[in-house]
Design a protein that fits this description.
By secondary structure, the chain is α/β, with parallel strands linked by helices. It folds into two domains: about 1-155 and about 305-355, Medium-chain alcohol dehydrogenases, catalytic domain (Quinone Oxidoreductase, Chain A, domain 1), CATH 3.90.180; about 160-300, 3-Layer(aba) Sandwich (Rossmann fold). The chain has helices at about 40-45, 90-95, 145, 150-160, 175-190, 200-210, 235, 255-265, 285-290, 310-315, 335-345, and strands at about 1-10, 10-15, 25-35, 60-65, 80, 110, 125, 135, 170-175, 190-195, 215, 245-250, 265-275, 295-300, 325-330, 350-355. The strands form three sheets. Strands 3, 4, 5, 6, 7, 8, 15 and 16 form an eight-stranded mixed sheet that branches. The protein has a six-stranded parallel sheet with strand order 11-10-9-12-13-14, sandwiched between helices. Strands 1-2 form a two-stranded antiparallel ribbon. α4 crosses α5 and α4 (about 150-160) packs across α10. The radius of gyration is 21 Å and the shape is globular.
């Protein structure tokens, strides 16, 4: 089969590799589509893991082979895969910190080499410990919708970590695919969303998905409470009052946005870090605002297996219609181009997917 094999920093090569052999309790899935995720982009660009590997974990496809002891599935089932599943029994799991579970940190879907998701290939092997995370895709829904379950899960997990009440006001910094998912899910939960981004095209979609206010990040001043979006710039400029924020979600790894969020969130508010994954960075935070003003600085990473059913209902019912977030589709032979576009988005690009 063909696969996009990572051979070192910024080096993806289309190679012929063996079709994975499956064990007695495993599945072989023919990949239909795989999303390009920022976590894989970072590994590819910066060489943070040793090669060779086959990346891609936002995967959906069709079961084409079953191990003799694999139960609950049939050949021909259309499925969305979940490459991390916790043990549900260890110290981390008992504290609902699933991403810190040692089993969770293992990758249970592979197309060969060190398991790394494998979705940038024609076939993947699904190991027994992640089978509880496999979701069957309804007939009316597409493979692309199935592939989006994993990123939606990460967003819903982060939202559930916040102590939000209906009517609260939340800043979502960054309106890429992840930020837009935050905007939509928060709107569905009754929050007032202020969406910021560097691109007006993304803000336009954010308004469609439920943002009450939008601002270009380069000139982002939080709109005053008295004026809706249709108010003139002069009206807004003449008002000194600003909307008090109950929470801020950073869907971009911007230290400037983080410092601004800490300043603007009201006392006892919460700031969620979703994209600050680079270790060793210093941000120059005013920690007194965390201590004295009792503001919570939280992080959220990866997905929560226990949310799979709720995520599936949101996506497959199209309350969160992920189809409008997918703008570019590449064949496997152009995997490097797909990664490049996803790493340097244009005003016209949002979610990028690869279809073997």
């Amino acid at each position: 089969m063909r696969a996009a094999v990572y051979r070192g920093p910024n080096d993806l090569r289309i190679e012929t590799v063996p079709v994975p052999r499956i064990g007695p309790r495993e599945l072989l899935v023919k990949v239909a589509v795989c999303g390009v995720c920022p976590t894989d982009i970072k590994k590819i660009h910066y060489g943070t893991v040793p090669p060779p590997r086959i990346f891609g974990h936002e995967t959906a496809g069709t079961i084409v082979r079953l191990g003799p002891r694999a139960q609950g599935f049939r050949i021909g089932d259309r499925v969305a895969l979940h490459h991390h599943v916790p043990c549900l029994d260890c110290h981390a799991c008992r504290h609902h910190a699933f991403a810190q579970c040692e089993q969770y940190k293992r990758t249970g879907v592979t197309a060969g080499f060190e398991p790394a998701g494998g979705g940038f290939a024609e076939y993947v092997r699904v190991m027994p410990f992640v089978l509880p995370g496999v979701v069957k895709i309804p007939r009316k829904n597409s493979f692309e919708e199935g592939a989006m379950l994993e990123p939606v899960n990460t967003v819903l997990k982060a939202i559930k970590r916040l102590s939000l009440l209906p009517g609260d006001t939340v800043l979502v910094a960054g309106q890429g695919p992840i930020g837009l998912m935050f905007t939509r899910l928060l709107h569905l939960r009754g929050m007032n969303v202020l969406a910021t981004d560097l691109m007006e095209s993304r803000l336009k979609l954010a308004r469609k998905l439920g943002a009450r206010w939008t601002q270009l990040a380069s000139t982002a001043e939080i709109p005053p409470t008295a004026f809706p979006l249709r108010s003139s710039k002069s009206q807004i400029a003449n008002r000194k009052s600003q909307i008090p924020l109950d929470s801020a979600i950073l869907a971009v790894p911007s230290d400037a946005a983080l410092r601004q969020a800490i300043q603007r969130v009201r006392g006892a508010g919460q700031i969620m870090l979703f994209a600050h994954t680079r270790r060793g960075a210093t941000t120059g935070l005013d920690l007194a605002s965390v201590c004295v003003d009792e503001k919570d600085l939280l992080g959220s990473y990866s997905s929560d297996f226990t949310l799979q059913n709720e995520v599936a209902r949101l996506v497959f019912s199209r309350k969160l219609d992920v189809r409008q977030l997918i703008t570019h589709r590449f064949p496997l032979a152009e995997a490097a181009k797909a990664v490049q576009l996803a790493s340097k988005p244009t005003p016209q690009s949002l979610k990028v997917v690869i279809s073997p």
